[in-house]
């Protein structure tokens, strides 16, 4: 096995290992996270998990492991085509918790599954990585598609964020909603520039080789620039996940008014309806003293609100669809969770 040899490597490669391991660990935190929106959590979890595995393969390439063990080169842990769609859906479900899957959304899974399937086939048939098809055709197509699709999905995410921001500016909204949108806007913009930075090195290397017949990889530092720019992207996703776990976007709002009551924060500021909000964020004097769990306390309040809205609203929607939308917009983790707490039969 080649793992013991890795322990002898340099600090810079250890940093990439650490980023990969951190992303892998945080992916499980989001998968089992009881707060937030279920679909947004699962999208972030898969994004972190695939970033972790893809970065792991990058690290193994930096260590020249595949030169010693070429039979593992096509082992399917390279998921670059899935990263863009997963971040896009994370943004979408964060902005619109009541959004439901549609058949048309399956198109976003086609190319990621194609990439995974192709690597799996090449791995099982023990295809040689130095073959002409891979080095001259597939590698170029894969890199080009990753650059174009990833930047496109980030641009689509940015468009959704800007649209949501414009809607909130022209309609009555809670302070946390605008704070969350602008927090997501800033982090998506930085993520786009990091992706563009990584894409620049990939495109420059391709252009120099095709147009001038010179490979930039002869410079010892150049391959590390492409690898570490990808690691920076993974690190930024970890940062987004960490700040979401800390609810960093809502903390300044809670510190603005010293004389606020729990009712002011939960109902007038609407923090009750933020899926990511927790009672532990309240100032210490305002936190409940009951032994009841904070999740159950929030959900009971949300349940009362949804039932009241259910009695008042008559939008023409079918009852199951309306109830599902009201539950998710009120901050419930999922509709099934709402049904369990409020004794409602889950709608199909």
List the SSEs and their pairings.
Layout (H helix, E strand, L loop, with lengths): L2 H4 L4 H21 L6 H25 L2 H4 L11 H16 L14 H15 L7 H38 L5 H38 L9 H25 L4 H4 L7 H7 L25 H19 L6 H11 L5 H8 L6
What features would you describe in this structure?
The protein is mainly alpha-helical and 348 residues long. The chain has helices at 3-6, 11-31, 38-62, 65-68, 80-95, 110-124, 132-169, 175-212, 222-246, 251-254, 262-268, 294-312, 319-329, 335-342. Helix 3 (38-62) runs antiparallel to helix 5 (80-95), helix 3 runs antiparallel to helix 9 and helix 5 (80-95) runs parallel beside helix 7 (132-169).
Structural class computed from helices and strand pairing: mainly alpha
In helices, the fraction of residues equals: 55-70%
The total of beta strands comes to 0
**Strand-and-helix sequence, N→C?**
HHHHHHHHHHHHHH
Mind describing the biggest β-sheet? none
In one word, what is the shape? elongated
Instruction: Quickly count the domains.
Output: 2
The fraction of residues in strands falls at under 5%
């Amino acid at each position: 096995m080649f793992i013991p040899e890795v322990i002898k490597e340099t600090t810079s490669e250890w940093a990439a290992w650490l980023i990969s391991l951190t992303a892998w660990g945080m992916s499980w935190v989001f998968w089992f996270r009881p707060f937030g929106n279920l679909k947004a959590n699962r999208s972030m979890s898969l994004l972190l998990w695939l970033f972790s595995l893809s970065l792991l393969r990058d690290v193994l390439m930096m260590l020249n492991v595949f030169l010693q063990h070429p039979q593992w080169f096509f082992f399917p842990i390279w998921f670059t085509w899935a990263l863009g769609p997963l971040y896009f859906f994370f943004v979408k479900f964060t902005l619109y918790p009541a959004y439901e899957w549609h058949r048309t959304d399956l198109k976003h899974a086609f190319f990621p599954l194609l990439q995974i399937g192709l690597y799996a086939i090449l791995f099982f048939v023990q295809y040689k990585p130095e073959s002409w098809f891979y080095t001259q055709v597939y590698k170029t197509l894969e890199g080009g598609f990753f650059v174009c699709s990833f930047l496109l999905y980030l641009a689509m995410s940015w468009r959704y964020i800007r649209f949501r921001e414009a809607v909130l500016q022209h309609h009555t909204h809670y302070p946390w909603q605008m704070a969350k949108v602008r927090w997501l806007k800033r982090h998506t913009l930085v993520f786009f520039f990091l992706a563009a930075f990584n894409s620049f090195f990939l495109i420059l290397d391709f252009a120099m080789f095709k147009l001038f017949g010179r490979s930039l990889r002869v410079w010892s530092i150049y391959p590390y620039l492409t690898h570490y720019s990808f690691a920076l992207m993974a690190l930024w996703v970890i940062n987004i996940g960490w700040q979401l776990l800390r609810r960093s976007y809502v903390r300044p709002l809670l510190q603005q008014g010293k004389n606020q009551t729990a009712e002011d924060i939960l109902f007038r500021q609407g923090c009750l309806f933020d899926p990511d909000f927790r009672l532990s964020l309240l100032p210490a004097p305002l936190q409940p003293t009951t032994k009841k769990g904070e999740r159950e306390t929030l959900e009971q309040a949300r349940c009362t609100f949804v039932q009241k809205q259910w009695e008042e609203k008559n939008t023409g929607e079918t009852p199951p669809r309306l109830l599902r939308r009201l539950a998710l917009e009120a901050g419930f983790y999922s509709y099934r969770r709402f049904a369990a707490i409020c004794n409602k039969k889950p709608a199909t």
